[in-house]
Amino acid sequence: MRVQLFIPCFVDQLYPETAFNMVKVLEKAGVEVAYNEEQTCCGQPAFNAGFRDEAREVCTKFLKDFDGHDYIVAPSASCVGFVRNYYSTLFNNSSLHNQVRDMQKRIFEFSSFMVNVLGVEDVGASLYGKATYHDSCAGLRECRIKEEPRKLLARVKGLEMLEMNDVETCCGFGGSFAVKFESISVAMADQKVNNALQTGADYIISTDLSCLMHLDGYIRHKGYPIRTMHIADVLANC
Length: 238
Prior knowledge:
Helix content is about 55%, strand content about 15%. The protein contains 13 helices and eight strands. The protein has helices at about 10-15, 15-30, 45-50, 50-65, 75-90, 95-105, 110-115, 135-140, 145-155, 175-180, 180-200, 210-220, 230-235; strands at about 1-5, 30-35, 70-75, 105-110, 125-135, 155-160, 205, 225-230. The strands form two sheets. Strands 2-1-3-4 form a four-stranded parallel beta sheet, sandwiched between helices. The protein has a four-stranded parallel beta sheet with strand order 6-5-7-8, sandwiched between helices.
């Protein structure tokens, strides 16, 4: 099977190792990975900020960059959720309407693709310690991802998974929300991190680096003994 790799802006700029680790896991599962170097943003930041015309321009390029029949896989439920749920709003009753509907069926968040498309749960990974999983808002509510990452993590050798309280509550990032409403955002991060600490976990794992970046900043500021890890980084660890 061949897939097209979509690497979101912040992953490309801040966490490129996660992208390489996702490729490593996909290739280990027997998938041929292709990467279009012309790809840019999915358009979500402009859309969320209210710039619909500018977002539509970026999204049109995204449709062109990922035209074809291959599955599209990304290490971000946030970006995948945006394409699946909001592209229709931008392109309804347009000449690109059918192309959008086709893409919405082909684009997958990484853990969902592994479990639901490839049927793979054990990738031979190992990580020794305790971990708790954070359900990102986009993963849970926009991509309907709940059990898939947990199935993958349950098969990681040496890793004990522990559920935190209020696991489905937002971490407080929310893109520009963290900037516009800093005090609320920090309070939400405090609640999420303390719920994770109460489990005795060594790691907070999620599908979304946006959430993990926010939580990691708070953890570092407080000096707490817990780390954040993207699920692709966990699964690439042998």
